[in-house]
Inverse folding.
């Protein structure tokens, strides 16, 4: 990854961000700064606003009120530097992992990317494996989704429930991959309701409830 950010540098800044759907507030006046080379875990029950917050940072949703900047600009202009892994796999089941990534790499035309083979190798998958993604284990599918998020050499990684439905071994692999990505200088923001999984790698745990970030914030690492 070229020109890694300096630890402590602001990567994503939210200022009084609210997201309303009619009278329902999915996000309520969220203000926070996410710093470079840190891993943040967003905790909370289903419906707490975790996924909505990720989608706002990714530029997939526009705040009703407030502002968001990513790497100093609007998220829509920073998308090429954001890697987003949704809760749903968003993979073509009939294609192999490499074929999936070759397709998604084509969507980054004109932008610097890593090769599909290198992206798969970085998450511990064999790029020559010919079988379709439909025949993969859940752990392999999650790692393929992570490889897809890495195609564009992102500085900011947004991972929505990366441990979902993983067995203990696959969850450990995912934890190690996320820790390595953070150590390379990327900022990682992940959502989970499994605090025990996120705790060992998160620099900060953020709890959400009813669209709000709660205090205190728990820093797990120096």
């Amino acid at each position: 990854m070229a020109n890694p950010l300096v630890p402590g540098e602001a990567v994503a800044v939210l200022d009084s961000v609210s997201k309303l759907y009619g009278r329902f507030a999915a996000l309520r006046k969220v203000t926070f700064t996410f710093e470079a080379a840190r891993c943040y875990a967003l905790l909370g029950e289903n419906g707490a606003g975790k996924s909505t917050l990720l989608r706002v940072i990714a530029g997939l949703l526009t705040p009703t009120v407030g502002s968001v900047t990513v790497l100093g600009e609007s998220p829509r202009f920073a998308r090429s530097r954001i890697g987003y892994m949704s809760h749903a796999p968003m993979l073509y089941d009939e294609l192999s992992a490499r074929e999936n990534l070759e397709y998604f790499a084509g969507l980054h035309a004109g932008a610097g990317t890593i090769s599909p083979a290198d992206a798969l190798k970085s998450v511990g998958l064999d790029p020559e494996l010919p079988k379709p993604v439909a025949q993969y284990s859940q752990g392999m599918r999650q790692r393929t989704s992570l490889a897809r998020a890495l195609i564009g050499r992102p500085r900011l990684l947004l991972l929505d429930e990366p441990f979902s439905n993983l067995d203990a071994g696959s969850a450990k692999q995912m934890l190690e991959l996320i820790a390595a990505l953070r150590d390379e200088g990327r900022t990682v923001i992940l959502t989970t309701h499994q605090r025990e999984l996120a705790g060992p790698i998160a620099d900060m745990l953020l709890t959400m409830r009813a669209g709000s970030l709660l205090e205190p914030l728990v820093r797990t690492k120096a």
Summary: The chain has a mean pLDDT of 90. Residues 11 and 111 are 20 Å apart (CA to CA). The longest helix spans residues 168-183. Helices lie at 50-58, 97-106, 116-122, 138-150, 168-183, 195-198.
